[in-house]
Amino acid sequence: MPALKNKKITILADRIEQQFLPFVRTPSRYIGGEINQTKKNLDTCDLKVALCFPDVYEIGMSHTGMAIIYEVLNRLPNVAAERVFLPWLDAQEVMKQKNIPLYTLESKAAVKDFDILGFSLTNELCYTGVLNILDLADIPFRSKDRGEECPLILGGAGMANCCEPVADFFDMFLLGQAEEAAVELSQFLIEHKNKNTERKTVLAKVAEKFPYIYVPSLYNGTRRLADAVVDDLDKSVVPEKPIVPFTQAIHERISVEVMRGCPGRCNFCQASFCRRPVRYRSPQRIFEIAKKAYEATGFDTISLLSLSTADYPYLEEVITSLNEYFEPRRVGISLPSLRVDVQLKLLPKLASSVRKSGLTIAVEAASERLRRIVNKPITDENLFAAVEEAYKQGFESIKLYFMAGLPGETEEDIKNIVKLSCELAVLRKKVCSRVANITAAVSWFVPKAHTPFGWAGQQSEEYFRNAKEIILAEKQKRGARFINFKFHNIRRSLLESVIGRGDRKLTDVIEYAYKSGARFDLWDEFFNFETWQKAFEKFGLDLNKLAARKFEMDEILPWEHLGGPDKQYLLKHLQSAEDK
Q: Which pTM was predicted?
C-alpha cells in the first residue's frame, strides 16, 4: 500500500456544485451535509474508507448495517469513513458528460483516492451495482488488474457468505458481523500502510491473520473460514445520533436492534442459519438507544428490529417502558418482524402503543403440513387466535407473506393460500360487521446457500406462472375482492437462485450483463431478463437449468468454505424435512 500513504485526495466540491447539482433531478441525494453526519479532515487520518451501497441514497440510508459501520469506523480517531451511494441514471449521465468521477458525500472526495472501498452486499442482484460504482469511480473491475494506486475493495454483509460469483471483483470479503472485526482490520491495515507494505503482501497477511477474512486470489481450497461474531449486544456500537436524510428514505425512523439471530430454523432462511447464536439486547440499553436517537433526530417512529421480534423475551417490558416515555411525545412503535406462535398473542394486547396501520405476519405456507416441512411450526389455532386478538385491539388490515414452490408443495397448498387469506379476512366479522382488508405477498422459493434447502432445485418459470394463475383463479372463484395479491417477479427469483448458489463461472456473465446494460436489477422498471439470458448464453450456460439444479449431498458446494453452519448440521435438518 505504499502509493496510498501520502496520496493526494482530490476534492470535487466546486465542480459538483457548479457542473453537477444544477443538472440532476434529485440533488438532495448527492449533496451530503445532513444533520449528524461525520466529516473528518482526510489529510490527518491514517485510513480513509469509502462505505459503498450499490443502490440509491433512499435505499442505502435505510440500511442499518451500513449506519452501524459508519459509526464504528468514525469513532476511531485515525480513521475516516464516508458514504457513497449509486447515483440514479440521470446523474450518471451528467457525470459521464462532464467527466466527474464518483465522490463521497461528506468531503466530496474522489472515491478512487480512498484506501478502502467497503461494499454492503445485501442481495444477489446488487452485483451490477457494484460494477457500476467501480466504473463511475474509474477503478478496474478485476482485482488482478488493480495496481498499488487503487484502493482495496472489500465486500461484506449477507452475500459475503456466498460470494464466489463476484470473487474476482473483490480483494477481500469480511464474513459475519463487522462491528468488532472492522476495527481489528482497520488497525492492521494502518500498521502495514505505515510500513509501506505492498498490496499483495498486505492481502497475504490479512488472509493469514483473520479467520473471517476471505481473500479470493489467495484461496487454495484447504481452509474453511469462520464468521465474525459480536457476543455482547449491549456493549456493541450503535449510531446514537443517526443521520437525518435530506430526501425521504424508505424507512425514516429510529431503528433499534433488540436481538440478533433467530431461535427458529426455517429451512429456507439463510439469515437464521448464518447469524447464530441468538443474543439479546437488554431493555435498559434499548430504551437508552431509542431516547438518544430521538433527541438527535426527532423521528416519530421507533422500529424494534430483529429476525423475529416476537421471540424477544422482554418485549412487553420494552414496549411498556418506551410507551411511558414516547407516547406523550407522539412517537409510535413499529414491530415489523412478527413470528406467529403462542407469543404472538401478546402483541395485539400491546397495540395501544403500536402503530395500527396493519399487522404483518410471515405465514410462509398455507398448511400446517408444509410449515412442518420448512420447519416453521405455526399452528392454525395460534394464527387465528393472534389475528382475532389483533382485530379486537383495533387492527383493520393484515399483510401476509407466503412462499410458493417450496419442497413438498402440492396444488392444494397453492389453493390454500387463497383459502387461508379469506378465512383470516372474514374472521374480523367476529369482532365487527366488516371483513378485513388482506394484502397477500407471494414470493417464489429461492434455494439459499448455507440452508438445508440449499441442495434443492428451484421450480421452473412455468411452474411459478401456473401457481400465480391458480391463486388468481381461486380468488375470482371466491369473489374475494378484499384480498390484494402481490407477486414477486418470477424471472428475478430465477436469477437470484442462480447467482446465490453460483461459482466463479458467473463472473464473466455478471460483467458481460453489466456492459450490456444491466442496471438497478432490483428495480422493476430497469430489470431486463433478456439481457441476463444473453449473458448466460454468451458463455455457454443455461440460466434455467442452473436455477433448477439439485446438488448432491456429498458434492463440494461453491459456498461451503465461506463461514456459515457445518455442512453435516444442515444435512440433518434436510433429512428431518424429508421425513415429514
A: 0.95
